[in-house]
Amino acid sequence: MIGRKDEPFVRDGEAEWQPAGEGVVRKVLTYSDRVMMVRVRFEAGAVGPPHSHPHVQCTLVESGVFDVTIAGRTERLRAGDSFLVPPHAEHDARNIEAGTLLDVFTPMRRDFV
């Protein structure tokens, strides 16, 4: 199952991991038409390639170490750090130490469901 639309409570085990690139899987947790929460797990060395989208994205580094580039600026982020991606800004994430990101998008990513 891919997440739960408009469900106020979702247990982690209720959503399945889906492939999202080499060494990357994602789990859509909960969403409505206006917002979506997604957990993304990276194996060591995996890359989320450069891309952009019309959504605002807020991300929390749950675990691991990532080099994140947003609009040409790169920072090394660790567990507890976060970042904000404005609409249409090119961005990527390069995993340094295996870890997990928690993404929130507004509006929701229709291409994920």
TrEMBL record:
SUPFAM superfamilies: RmlC-like cupins. Residues 39-104 form the Cupin type-2 domain. It holds the Pfam family Cupin_2. Signal peptide: none annotated. This is Cupin domain-containing protein.
